[in-house]
Design a protein that fits this description.
The protein has two helices and 22 strands. The chain has 337 residues and is mostly beta strands. The strands form five sheets. Strands 6-10-9-8-7 form a five-stranded mixed beta sheet, with no helix packed on it. The longest helix is centred in the last third of the chain and has 10 residues. It starts with 24 loop residues before the first strand and ends in a 14-residue tail after the last helix.
Length: 337
């Protein structure tokens, strides 16, 4: 299947085991990032990775020993073993003056044209989206917050749509409960946002995503549409459970869902997903795709304590999503009422 992406010949990869169940399989050496990864940081999880120079670069959610999350920068030759900058990413404003958020977590990293954008959850009189840009991973210019509170899970598309930036998000309340649906917004300049459209409804008939959903990795452009890995949440008598799902958005109108798998593609089953600071969490944040082979490496947060990796191919995951498609409320509509 054709993929509109770059070639990543050094993409981390492990062949599918013979006993693997489902279209996605875990890296056998998980977790790839363990606890206490650098001084002053107890846990790294929910982090994003992209190719950079002859290796990879990542933005990492680091929980400091005082409990406050911030974003750290890391580099890797193979996308598995990481070296981190010891200090938080030093954000500045357009004038070059320090402009640090009070806290920052769950970053996404997306390249659009010649610029890399970091999107994270920040404090703006409540949980909101923060955004910054860089071209060299030395200078990080923080932009104005794109939306009012309360909002989470900001995910940029890797190219402009009809000349505009496009951003997925999930409007929320002040805590960690619903609103539970995903929306898309457009901007010509990353300052003024509009054309807000509804994309996906939480799964009324699928308990694993019945409470809320949220965009995960930046969408991957394929000939079938935009392949999106996302998280779905259910409530149980013992707390929330986060699982990974997949869907395909329309190529020209990504507010319309073409296919959406009824089933999760990964759910907490391993010790590093079930046991941790927040148990029972699989939280996809980044997906690297090699256009030549169609191989995909997914980075996901595990139990708010570790980073895990999983693998699939474009052909396998797209075929699975189409074969297990189910209609959810008004997902197939353009998202305007």
């Amino acid at each position: 299947m054709k993929v509109f992406a770059d070639n990543i010949p050094n993409l981390p990869w492990q062949e599918k085991p013979a006993d693997a169940i489902g279209p996605v399989w875990r890296y056998s050496e998980n977790p790839v990032i363990d606890r206490n990864p650098l001084p002053g940081v107890t846990r790294i999880f929910n982090s994003a990775v992209l190719p950079w120079e002859d290796g990879f670069i990542g933005v990492f959610r680091g929980e400091q020993t005082n409990g406050v999350p911030h974003i750290y920068l890391g580099r890797s030759k193979d996308g598995i073993h990481w070296e981190y900058e010891p200090e938080k990413i030093p954000f500045v404003n357009e004038k070059g003056e320090p402009f640090m958020p009070r806290y920052a977590y769950d970053p996404r990293l997306v390249k659009v044209e010649d610029t890399y954008y970091i999107i994270w959850c920040t404090d703006f009189y409540g949980a909101a989206l923060g955004m910054a840009k860089t071209k060299d991973f030395k200078h990080f210019v923080r932009l104005e917050n794109p939306f009012l509170p309360f909002n989470r899970n900001g995910v940029l598309f890797p190219r402009k749509l009809n000349g505009n930036f496009a951003l997925l998000s999930r409007p929320s309340d002040s805590g960690h409960t619903p609103f539970g649906d995903v929306f898309i917004s457009e901007s010509p300049d990353l300052t003024f946002w509009g054309k807000h459209r509804h994309v996906m409804t939480r799964g009324y008939n699928q308990w694993w995503q019945a409470l809320k959903i949220g965009g995960g990795a930046a969408p991957i452009e394929t000939e079938e549409g935009w392949l999106l890995f996302y998280h779905g949440v259910t409530g149980t008598c013992n707390g929330y459970v986060y699982s990974m799902g997949a869907c395909i958005l329309d190529h020209e109108e990504p507010s319309k869902v073409r296919y959406r798998s009824e089933n999760f593609i990964l759910t907490p089953e391993k010790w590093y997903e079930e046991r941790g600071f927040v148990p029972n969490v699989v939280f996809p944040v980044s997906a690297l795709c090699d256009a030549e082979t169609g191989r995909i490496a997914i980075y996901y947060g595990a139990a708010d304590s570790y980073v895990g990796m999983a693998f699939t191919t474009v052909d396998e995951i797209v075929s699975y999503v189409k074969a297990n498609h189910t209609d959810n409320a008004d997902d197939a509509e353009i998202g305007v009422m």
